[in-house]
Amino acid sequence: MHVVIVGNGIAGVTAARHVRKASAGARVTMVSDETLEPFARTALMYIYMGALTLAHTQMYEERFWAENRIDRVQDRALSLDPARQRLALRDGGEMPYDRLLLATGSRPAIPPWPGASLPGVQGLYHLSDVERMERDTRGIRSAVVVGGGLIGVELAEMLGTRGVAVTFLVREARYLPRVFSEAESALVAAEVRRHGVDLRLGAEVARVEGDERARAVVTADGERWAAGFVGVGTGVRPHVDWLGGAVETGRGVLVDRQLRASAPNVWAAGDCAELRDPPAGVRPVEPIWYTARLQGATAGLGLAGRVRDYAPGVYFNSAKFFDLEWQVYGATAGDGDDWERADGARSLRIHHHDGAVTGVSALGVRLRQDVCSRWIAEGWPLDRALADLGAARFDPELTAPLLA
Amino acid sequence: MADLPLYNPGADLALFSNPAFRPTAVQRLALALVAAGVVAVIVALAGGASGAPAVWGGLALAGLGGGGVLWALAGLARPAGVRAEGTMFSSNQARGAVGWAVGLVLTGLYVVLYFWPAALGGLVALGDPLSRLLRGQPATVANGGQWFLYTTVYTLAVAVMGVRALVRYRHSRYHVVRTLSVMFFQTVIAFALPFFLVRLGEPELFFLYTWPLDYDLFFPWKVAELRETGRLGVAMLVWGVALIALITPVLTFFFGKRWYCSWVCGCGGLAETAGDPYRHLSDKSLGAWKLERWLVHGVLAVITVGTAALWVAAVADVGWLDAVAVGFSNQYGFLIGSIFAGVVGVGFYPIFGSRVWCRFGCPMAAVLGLQQRFFSRFRITTNGGQCISCGQCSAYCEMGIDVRWYAQRGQNVVRASCVGCGVCATVCPRGVLRLENGPDTSGARRAGAPANNLITDLEIL
Fold first, then answer.
1. Residue B441: its pLDDT value, please?
2. Which one, of A257, A336, A332, lies nearest residue A295 by Cα?
């Protein structure tokens, strides 16, 4: 059986490992145009910042791929013929498959502002984005970053390490309002400003100005910000255009609960997949690294013949806003109340509804995933969870507790 | 995993292309002071300082020490937190020309110190005023003054670069306390106390070290010598035995080998302070791990067998064994004590990282490592499925442990070589790693099974 995986991001790599573990005999081929060596996309910012080299971000030593008989092909998939079970590659001709995984990830979604296509305007997703950014930020003095998501703050941090003055334009009146409490938004905003970034909330971009490259960003209220470079972190879009009508797509490749696409023997996982019938609390398209890994594991087992439902367990995600780490578990917004404590540098918020903890959000505090997940999965009452806070601590030794 | 090339011209080019790396006014002043210190050292080496050793010595101290501290304090201008940016572009830290120059100078100084100390005569004289003050005798090559100078410079390096570490890691109380600990043990116990003992007419004793790191402590003639010196000498012997046989296993059981390697030991102290800028240069490959296990346990086996042979020779009075044993003792001192620990261990900091000796050579680390691996509660726990595989834990591990290998499969790290410096947990951007030594409440084995919140009925690769 030949299993072909398109994409070598975390979904593709995790799927390949699970196919191998569940099936010793399968032939596994992973195709990617980006790099031969799978690397951690989450670490792209650190390559630009010089905290890591590309080699440091590669997930396994070279020998791993040979030892586990996972073949890698650096080539671009151009189209899919599901009837003949063949993948058309740019350089390698047709590649037949018995089972196929689509794990092509996302692409940055740049809003259609006038001037958005000027050189020096870009998002951050692929290795080529870092290379382009390296080239286009050389010698510039100022830059604008647009979009108050997780990528926007990474771009601001990256640019700051090159001595570039950064203006950070966020459309919302506060940072991540749908995710954070007001206190949390304020804490993150203070952290961004502490690092010398000019954070402008409530700023809507009208257009990008420039000549042979971007020179400035103008907002809807007419303010003009000089920008030798414009970093865009306004979101991503599943990378599925190349499939044409080969499989059913909505925003992403439509998949069932077992992550199977509409065509036989085709699966999809990660950013590019869209769940037709998501489990409760799960978004149909969830462009999160951890989600891609969970889906990759599920799809990998499915490809190897051990089909199972995608069951991600208690939601979790994490990020780092400059020096402020963030961990989130379960549902932290919506109906219910917040229990919240902060000391000016850190905060901890427990969301509860109908007498049960539904979510936990921690800024500058490290918590144990298994403990927080248990509170939420078992619906612990708030006071029981608070009494268990000691068990949830994951801060380094000698750290003063948030609550003495 | 070839990360940085052995010589990295890209780092040298970045010196000029990246405005963020241009020194601030304070840093320029610090560099000028260091340069003045270097000039004083060169003048002294050329014999030009003999007329006024206090003046030139003072200039060297103020320049290298004061300039170093000022450079370190300049770090306060940057926000507290993990400031790893620029490391891989730095000519000094990423095997560029500056790093190679530092490495060659350090290696050269060690070679001259061990094999041609007379060439250091002019420099040794700089230590004369301090030597008279601390140990009541002049500093000349004839009375081992080069070792006084070496110890002084070593301690100064720990103190000055300790300030740098305190500034760099000021956001982490663990690192602050740990750094203060190694600074205290080096300056007070390893440096001041032995000279104080000499002033009192007692033997020069180093209470930080015992066999097998202090490899000749239990050699027959050393034991005889210490017994002859009286109560303090005997106390040193008793302390040495207690340290290796009792204190070491007990403390390592509760805290891991870190209680010694990154809190107390002078070699570790230098690595954690002066070596900290180079910690990421350790080799993370599986091949390096295999080499490490053969070498470090090989050295332990050699010193153990050798020490035993010396006692057999001494007790049984076998002529040929006596000759072999003495030859062994000399060769071990030369190859391991001088070449490995000094020339390679410290001289190669900017090329192979700060823990080459601790990882590949130190027999004490081998003992502690075996205890840590098999008889200890210490482990680095992994926080569920939070790892994002970024690789910073592995990159900044000074012992060359591929920490991410464990973290990304959700498994605790239990490794003989881990010195518990805690930097993997500090640089982790997602709070995935934690040094722990409490009793394991989950009931699982200490190393645990891979459990990264994925599919739990399969042993994941």
1. 54
2. A257
Is B395 in CB contact (< 8 Å) with chain A? yes
Q: What distance in Å separates the CA atoms of residue A50 and residue B13, rounded to the nearest whole number?
A: 13
Burial environment of residue B440 by CB neighbours within 10 A (0 to 12, 13 to 18, 19 or more): middle
Give the Cα separation of A370 and A392 in Å (integer): 8
Nearest to B174 among A318, A323, A396 (CB): A396
Find residue A4's DSSP bridge partners: A29, A100
- The rounded average pLDDT for each run of 10 residues, N- to C-terminus, in chain A (404 residues) is 97 96 96 96 96 95 94 97 97 97 97 97 97 94 94 97 95 95 97 97 97 96 97 96 96 98 98 96 94 95 95 94 97 95 95 97 96 95 96 94 74
B319 touches chain A (CB under 8 A): no
Q: In what order do the strands lie in the sheet with A205-210?
A: A205-210, A214-219, A224-226
Q: Enumerate the H helices of B262-285 as residue ranges.
A: 266-273
Among the listed residues A324, A334, A255, the one whose alpha carbon sits nearest the alpha carbon of residue A296: A255
**Domain A316-392 - what CATH class?**
alpha beta
Handedness of CA B70, B72, B76, B77 (dihedral sign): positive
Q: pTM for the whole thing?
A: 0.95
Residues of B within 8 A of A318 (CB-CB) are 386, 388, 430-431
Residues B421/B178, Cβ–Cβ less than 8 Å: yes
Q: Residue A44 to residues A39, A51, A159, B18: CA-CA distances in angstroms?
A: 9, 10, 13, 18
pLDDT at A404 (0 to 100): 55
* A368 chain-B contacts, CB cut-off 8 A: 383-384
Contact A52 B425 (CB under 8 A): no
User: Minimal CA–CA distance to B431: which of B384, B397, B399, B398?
Assistant: B384
CA distance B83 to B176: 16
Indicate the residue among B364, B391, B409 that finishes a domain. Answer: B364
- Name the residue type at position B23: P
Q: How far is B189 from chain A (nearest CA, A)?
A: 25
Query: Does the A110-234 domain belong in CATH 3.50.50.60?
Result: yes
CATH 3.50.50.60 fits A2-107+237-303, yes or no: yes
Query: CB burial class (10 A; 0-12, 13-18, 19+) of residue B338?
Result: middle
Q: How far off is chain B from A224, nearest CA to CA, in Å? A: 25
Measured between alpha carbons, how far is B372 from A43 in angstroms, rounded to an integer?
32
The 10s digit of each residue's pLDDT in A246-258 is 999 999 999 999 9
Identify whether the C-beta of residue B343 lies closer than 8 Å to the C-beta of residue B115.
no
Pairwise CB contact (< 8 Å): A52 & B434:
no
| Total domains, chain B | 2
Q: Angle A178-A179-A181 (CA atoms, 0-180°, nearest 5)? A: 95
Q: Which helix or strand (DSSP H or E) is residue B111 part of?
A: helix B97-115
Q: Are A109 and A197 in contact (CB under 8 A)?
A: no
Among A381, A179, A178, A14, CA closest to B385: A14
Residue A394: list chain B partners with CB under 8 A.
383, 431, 434
**Predicted complex ipTM:** 0.96
Q: Which of A111, A57, A98, A18 is nearest to A310 (CA)?
A: A18
The answer, for B433 touching chain A at a CB cutoff of 8 Å, is no
DSSP-derived secondary structure for A84-115:
TTEEEETTTEEEE-SEEEE---EEE-----TT
* Residue A194 backbone dihedrals phi, psi, to 5 degrees: -60, -25
Distance from C-alpha of A80 to C-alpha of A6, rounded to nearest angstrom = 11
Domain range for B343? 286-364
Contact across the interface for B422 and A17, Cβ inside 8 Å:
no
Say whether A110-234 and A2-107+237-303 share the same fold: yes
C-alpha separations of B199 from A361, B106, B156 in Å: 60, 31, 21
